[in-house]
Amino acid sequence: MKAIITGDRAAGAAGLSLSEMPYPHAAENDVIVAVHAAAFTPGELDWPGTWVDRAGRDRAPAVPGHEVSGIVAELGYGTTGLTIGQRVFGPTDWARNGTLAEYVAVEARNLVPLSADVDHTVAAALPISGLTAWQGLFDHARLAAGQSVLIHGVAGAVGSVAAQLAHECGARVIGTGRAAQREAALDLGADAFVQLEGAWAEAVGQVDVVFDVIGGEILDRSAQLVRAGGTLVTIAEPPRVQPADARAVFFVVEPDRAQLATLERKLRSGSLRTTVGAVLPLADAVSAFDPVNRVAGKTIIRVVDSD
Q1: Helix, strand or coil for residue 34?
Q2: Which of 63, 84, 95, 177 has the fewest CB within 10 Å, making it most exposed?
Q3: Taking the model in full, what pTM does it have?
């Protein structure tokens, strides 16, 4: 099969290439998915799991990408709950070959059935961003109706989903970003938008929840904005500054079939939408890792043109 593979670790994105790889093996409780659309995280070439397996063994050349939407092509021994030919989508394991390929092996428990009226390109943009937003808001921050939440990077892949989910649950949403992102933020359900420059923190005031995807000084300054009893949640890095009389949580997203099924229903009903920035064929996927070619929204790699 054709796949994007890594080269030398020191080369990073410059070492990526489109090459031939062996068809994946379906281990026990695995599914082989014929990839129709896939997504990746720009920084994943810096993740340890991209280069070594869970036992610490080198696994290069490896296939990047950890979000998939496609068709079940094969079931591993003991796999139940899915059938060959079924449309599915979901995240894949960090320490296994990923989704920028024609086929990928995925643990069946990570995959959720995909409705026929949801395009693979749209679905591939949801697993990591959607689960990260859900878990940050509701599992870790326990956001509830009537509370206020500040979402940094509100127009990004995670922030855009978080804004929609927070708005739907009845929270007051304040989004941050660049000035050009104001209209997009308001369209996503933000009640207010604050540009991240100058005295931005003073413009926000106190909130019940801060959801950070940026880190650094933005994360440091956000600690002062969390009111007593509130929560500062970040996926960027462990907080260096703790909020007074409030919690601070750094987390890494985890697969969750029930949560992803809920997100799929929202996607299907139109109450949730993903932000797709560009759609490229597999042959052009290497170029998508170049920062010069980054676009707003999620870049999707389309492997198959249609069902």
Answers
A1: strand
A2: 84
A3: 0.94
